[in-house]
Design brief:
Elements lengths: L1 H27 L14 E4 L3 E5 L3 H10 L2 H25 L4 E5 L4 E5 L5 E5 L8 E5 L6 E2 L5 H9 L5 H7 L1
Parallel strand pairs: 1-4, 2-3
Antiparallel strand pairs: 2-6, 4-5, 6-7
């Protein structure tokens, strides 16, 4: 008898805990899959080694906030702020020769390489609200993972120290 009672209690707790988790998961699913487009149609030309931080414009940010769960939005903005802050510190410390560019009021990034070729990136096509592209003036620009910024910068700017690139080049 006690065993059945205990079994029913555990089953009830399991159902309640699953129900509460589904509400939390539903809140997380409120992250927009496609961010709203920018109100600007300008292009930023990048012709030299650079780190390009991009951010949404004010109206775009309001639209993102309106379609995102409030706690998720605040958490994401908090996370981006500190990732970008640390990325700037790492850039200034290890790569002081790299110019830092802030982009808020443009939709397009036009990277012009030393060999004359160009690559254009549409920021509206990037699902992250904020991010960091690096460009060495020669190769392809790369969107970096700011949570691992020091390693990412080293792999991009110093490919000879990257064991993966080194083995591929041989």
């Amino acid at each position: 008898m006690k065993f059945q009672f205990l079994t029913y209690c555990l089953l009830g707790l399991l159902i309640i805990s699953c129900t509460n988790n589904s509400h939390q998961i539903a809140g997380i699913q409120n992250i927009p899959k496609n961010k709203p487009g920018s109100i600007f149609s300008d292009t930023v030309r990048i012709q030299y080694p650079s780190a390009v931080f991009y951010h949404p414009d004010s109206l775009q940010l309001q639209k993102i906030a309106a379609i995102t769960d409030t706690m998720v939005f605040k958490s994401t903005m908090h996370e981006f702020f500190y990732q970008m802050r640390y990325s700037r510190i790492a850039l200034k410390k290890y790569y002081p020769h790299i110019k830092i560019i802030e982009v808020m009021k443009a939709r397009w990034l036009l990277f012009e390489k030393k060999d004359g070729t160009k690559e254009c990136i549409d920021l509206d096509a990037k699902n992250d609200t904020e991010g960091l592209f690096v460009f060495d003036g020669k190769g392809e620009p790369r969107l970096l993972d700011m949570t691992n910024i020091e390693t990412e910068l080293r792999y991009y700017f110093l490919p000879e120290k990257n064991p993966i690139k080194k083995s591929v080049q041989q």
